[in-house]
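User: Please look over both lines:
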Amino acid sequence: MRLRTGAAGAAIHVFAIRIGAAGFAYVGQVLMARLMGGTEYGIFAAIWVWIAILGHSATLGLSQGACRFMPADQARGDLAAVRAYLVGGGIVTLASAIVIALGGLALIWVEGSLLEGPFAAPLLVAALVLPLFALQDYCEGVARGQNWAVLAIAPPYLLRQGLIMIAMLAAVGFGAPAEARIAVLCTLVATGVAVAVQATLLLRSLRAVLPAGPRRYAWRRWFRACLPIAASDLASAASSFIDVVVLSLLVSPATVGLYFAATRIQQFVVFVHFAATAATAQRFAAAHAAGDRVRLADLVTLQARLTLVATALIGIAVMAAAPLLLGLFGPEFRDSLPILAVLVAGSIAASAFGPGEDLLNMLGGERLAAGIALGMLVLAGGLCFALVPALGVIGAALAMAMATVVRAVAMAWAAHAVHGLVTPVRIHLFGKPGR
């Protein structure tokens, strides 16, 4: 009972925070769309997509690895390894993000044309945002690994979103032009403040549970698992935004803005899965390290059931409110309703296949998960390039919905093959849950 209550309670806390953050983000996106207009908003959307993709990937999988290695080592009493992971992971994450930012600037300089167009200033500021974003992603992983759901989620998804909105209003109020470069600059300020607050609170909390002492680094063991996870994370982040990236190559920035608005509202549905993962992934690792197969199977069953039901309910609610939510962006954004419907349907269908990816990343099988994720990225990109020229933006939505469902099915089959674990929503495919 304590297991179910703890996991469900953590998921509810994470979901509540993410819904609040989504509300802030939604209001912020409406605000920016209204202030900047379709073209500048489309530029900002494209820049934010690249910050998210590269920022998540810059941790080299160490953020997700913190949910796997730190709880497992703590369960075994190996605090020297925990201390080493905490410090080493933070240093590597920050260094990696700086290298990626500098490499990106070098590519932009070589390409040349981007420095002469409207993307120039936003891209330069985005390079400063990237290391802060990556460091915050690592802090989130460490806090999740300690089951501190509020500390993990609130600073990046509530505080940062709120500060972006406040900073943009203040900047325009003081006479700054409502342009993409100003929006990215506000993102830089907000991310810096949010990561400073989160890191301070995280270190204070860690001192209470992790006494000072020696460190024992195990880079080979960590990177053997984390680099495949990083590839999987890169593929996942890219898969989440490949539709926007392809559209930015094929259609006008204003059309990208129309599509991006629909994806921002879809996030209310996606957050259900995020909340479930944040609450249970580290618990999967701890139960596996303790050899408690019954507890592990119970967690998988709980996560699968709650995720499917909650995703369906939130999806229905989002579609009921969609005309109003899209209309607030501007009258032209109501044309995004079919896009949103297809994306939501894909999320609900995918949720029926349970936490396959979490099991592979937390228990072993991360290389297989990375291979599937990379394959699905290729599939999503190929479908987008095939369908967008013929169907326009609805083609991108159809491509993403199909790729999302295929990915969920593949992860479910792989988790069953590697670990023998199934969930009730997949019981007709695999038989009874493995224990």
Q: What stands out?
A: DSSP finds 14 helices and no strands in the chain. Residues 2-430 form one domain.
